[in-house]
Amino acid sequence: MIIPPYLKKGDTIGITCPAGYMEKEKAQTCITTLQQWGYEVMIGKTLGNNSKNYFSGTDEERLNELQAMLDDDRIKAILCGRGGYGVGRIIDKIDFKQFKRKPKWVIGFSDITVLHCHLNSKLKIASLHAPMAAAFNNDGFKNEYVLSLQKALTGKKISYQTTIHPFNKQGIAKGELVGGNLALLANVIGTPSDINTKNKILFIEDTGEYIYNVDRMFYQLKRSGKLENLSGLIIGGFTDTKDTTRPFGKTVYEVINDIVNEYNFPVSFNFPVSHEKENYTLKVGVNYQLEVGRKKVMLKEL
After folding, report:
1. Taking every pair of C-alpha atoms in the chain, what is the biggest distance, in angstroms?
2. CATH number at residue 166
3. pLDDT tens, 35-50?
């Protein structure tokens, strides 16, 4: 894996919205905070675009801006303002030649999972699954989750410790960290962005899904071999899950546990990676050690 250069004071971070629409005002705290961290900030036109629909611009506008930021040597990292939906519509039209010559950190989560998967599988370039612009609001810039992004950008190796869960499976796993949003991980199967999970630590989170749909997507991961030879599995937050009128009959974690329980690798449930405040920065493509113990869970960058 290629690790992009870490940032130093005075470097420029570009902010673009390659998927859903975001009001510029909602990114202002993020912009100010990045400047306080010592970085220059280049704001793309897709942030606060005069779009009249769900997207932050036409496919062409979003593609062109992301392409320009990938190619611009002045920009050392690209922070996606928000996720939503839209990266899958433009990913196959991006030219990564210049980016491959001079890699930079791509930052985001949710729909940005498509980019993380593509960079991992096609280009072997690490990226940051991390809080985006809205996470800085309401004093979010002070919390440990947003601050984990600051540490990651400067190259600090971070260890995270979290509490145990009754469904955890104890053990120690080492391997390259891959993953992201469940819906997108299932969506990229069979595409050029599909990831190889063999001997890797896979992390998964999602939001707003029906319980039966989580069940279906996990079975897709299982049937496509994504769970078979894992080194370890991290189950993050599954927030705002919905149930059908006639109940599915199990909680979302019970559904997941039923599917992964047959495997022997360590599993950590309720890890702080999610669509909520609890969303630690994770370096996709970097080697980690996952230790699931009786009293605590540790995820340590190697």
Report:
1. 56
2. 3.50.30.60
3. 999 999 999 999 999 9
